[in-house]
Amino acid sequence: MMEVAGLTVRFGGVTPLDGMTVTFDSGTCGLIGPNGAGKTTFFNVLSGFVRPLRGNVRALGDDLLAMPHYKRARWGLRRTFQTEQAIEELSVADNVALAHEHSRQGSRASRRADVRSALAFVGLEVAPHAKVETLGARDRRLVEIARAVVGRPRVVLLDEPAAGLPDEETEHVGRVIRGIPEHTGALVVLVDHDMSLVSACCDTTAVLDFGKLIAAGPTAEVLRDENVVRAYLGTEPVS
Amino acid sequence: MRVTRPRIRVRHPATAVVLLLVVLLAMPQALSTYWIDVLTAVAIYSVVALGLGLLMGRVGLVSLGQIAVLALGAWVAARLDFATSIPFPLVLLIAGTITMVLGTLVGLPALRLSGLYLALITLMLAGAITVVLTTTNFPNGGPGFLGHTESSFGNPAVRRPGIAGGDAAYFRYTVIVAALMFTLVFWHVHSRPGRAWAAIRQSEPAALAAGVNITTYKLWAWALASFVTGVAGGLLAGSVGKLYTYQFPTRDSIILLAVVLMGGIYNLWGAVVAGALMKLLPALLDNWGLPPDLLIILFGAGVLQVLLTAPGGLAGQVPKDLARLGQRLATLSGRRAPEGEAP
Amino acid sequence: MPSWQDFQPFIVTGLALGGVYSLSGVGMVVLYRTTGVLNLAFGAVGAMGAFIAWSLINTLSWPAALAYLACVGFGAAISLLYGMLTGPSLAGRDPLVKAAATIGLALMLLGAMSWIWSDKARSMVLPTTNWQYSVGEVQINWTQIIALALGVFVTLATAAFLRRTGLGTAMRALANDREITAALGVPVRRVEATTWLVSGALAGGAGLLLSNLVGLDAATLTFLVISSLAAALIARLRSLVVTLLAGVVIGLVNAMATPIFSISSYRDMTPFVLAAVALLFLARHQQISFARRSR
Description:
The structure holds three protein chains of three kinds.
Chain A (H helix, E strand, L loop, with lengths): L1 E10 L2 E11 L3 E5 L6 H9 L6 E6 L2 E2 L5 H7 L1 E3 L12 H10 L6 H15 L14 H13 L5 E5 L7 H18 L2 E5 L3 H7 L2 E6 L2 E7 H6 L1 H8 L6
Parallel strand pairs in A: 3-8, 3-9, 6-7, 7-8
Antiparallel strand pairs in A: 1-2, 1-4, 4-5, 9-10
Helix pairs in contact in A: 3-4, 3-5, 4-5, 6-7
Chain B lengths: L12 H18 L2 H27 L6 H18 L4 H23 L4 H22 L30 H23 L2 H11 L1 H6 L4 H27 L9 H14 L5 H19 L5 H16 L4 H20 L11
Chain C lengths: L3 H32 L6 H17 L5 H27 L4 H23 L9 H4 L1 E4 L2 E4 H23 L1 H11 L1 H6 L4 H26 L4 H6 L1 H10 L5 H17 L4 H4 L5 H14 L12
Antiparallel strand pairs in C: 1-2
Helix pairs in contact in C: 1-6, 1-7, 1-9, 1-11, 1-12, 2-3, 2-4, 2-9, 3-9, 6-7, 6-12, 7-9, 11-12, 11-14
């Protein structure tokens, strides 16, 4: 469970997050909202790239924002990025192991076994020593997801993990995402614009608009909510 | 500084070893003292280029002050050498370590800057060090902390290791130490720090999200580069015997940048090419009666060429060119169908 | 501690040098803001212009005024050529890459100067240096006055120009965002070309003045760019007036340290130390660089 309380971020004249308060229960939770709603900013706060003005985040009992950013990965916070960030120069196995080797969990042999099982879990059928720069978009995305689930992750943040992929690949990614909580016990937060993916993967969904939470609850209900529809279509919100 | 998509090639170790043996055994026999000194300089400056190449190619940091670091290493080595009777290998190690510590102290605040600003601050600090050195000079057996005496008669030279007093022997000694430095860096690149550096160079946010402590790893690269450069400084002190400020002009830091770029920053051999460009080529030109200034123009053009077109440098480009040539030859000789046709 | 009288001649030289540093500094700042290129070859360009002028006067017997014009013209021309040739290839790249490329230019010019003119001692004396008069107990010559006056004038004129004219506004827009400015129909290439031309002319002029104030030596003149760079950095590559003040301060501190024997030999550290401090000050708020892939 992850509890966000009163999170506010301000840069210059812009307030991307404005008193965001929401609780993410276990399983896979969606986070949606129109462009500029603050979703990526929220992830950036969690990753530690952005310091909030106010507010705190408690995940699984720990105060996340009190930890220095590089220690959060060691704690078990994992993340993928909107524009895919698999490290080209390294092999598939090294990419996936990147998060793991800096967490210092277990022995070398157990880490290698974890990498293999992560690769099998995401369904990536390339040789582990292949260089990432030789892979296509779909495989690179899977490498990133494998990196996010290897070992013992606690919170997995996925930022548009299927962006740019054709439908059937997106379905595959959806199936993988649905399996993450069961396979690893982690809480998954999925940010995406693809509503079919969100409906397929997420039990609950929260909706941001202008940095504020405007709806939260079971996905099907939230997607039908008037306020949410209005936020996406751009008319005045109901007060 | 990201100049292109990196292509790391793991050289077949046997080639390296054979090459090394040839160099160690055959060359000194066949050459005059002058050329032995030139090749010693090539070996030393290859190590300096190795340090800069590590910073630029692996972590994307540019330092315009490596020659000042070299001077520091030489200063420390000379001072130790005159003040104590510590054996030479240990002098090298201590010089490298002290340079590493000084480098790390500078790196701590400086590495918060990135890209252009980091390069500029290294230029500034190097300039400051050069000015100080002009006044304090290098140790030459004199008294006091600075170990410098103004008298110009009968000053001793930095002593060399017992087993390598002569020029040819010292050359072999230098090559071995250089090889050790290369091995040290190679080992770093192919294990955890190297992987962390690859991540940092491509995307700092992704590296951070994977738990890489970027500051620590950047400092590590910085410290390593300072260490090898410090050791090179010690070797230089032993090589020339008498150190003077004019041997470390600011201009050389710029030229070093040029030759490292030209030699190729993504390949450890590029450092050797860089060393040869910097020390062998001028000697060759001098030998053929051509003005060495032409070389400076060439280096300038080389920098422009690398940055504008062939970012892998010569060590990256030549194998590619040779491969392309090989393909063309194969096509011509009929062994392969030309590209575009079905085989 | 030396007396006020002892300082006076150094105050004069310091102000004059400071004026020239500001002159180059302003050129560097405007060029950087408009094109993203921090031109480290500024000093080399000015130096070569000065050498060309010298040769025109001493070898080809050109009238001095024409030779000086040629110097400034050379600075403008070679900067324009460089800017136009390298501009397209380097357009989207990191400022570090662009600055490193100017190092290539600087090396080429340094090598050329060394080759063509070798290291013989030379001097080039502007006629204005011979017009001297005394203020109190100090000798001042007109070159020094021109140096300072030009520095101040160019700074203020450029600042006004950037704010009040169409071209100036275009330059400021480019500094802000090249793509959007192009999309707005501003002739980006022409504005950039003008900037290169003018900054190059300033480099030529600075070279000419420095050859008088400091001496006609390729390496010295080339590396004096560091003092202008220091001034520009202290101004965070932004404010022209701060560049002027910083340049003058650097010149003054450097010169005034001369009669103080205890630190005199370290006075050349001034630009380096001031620039390093300015840079570290700039660094205090650094966040990590976001994944803007610099190619």
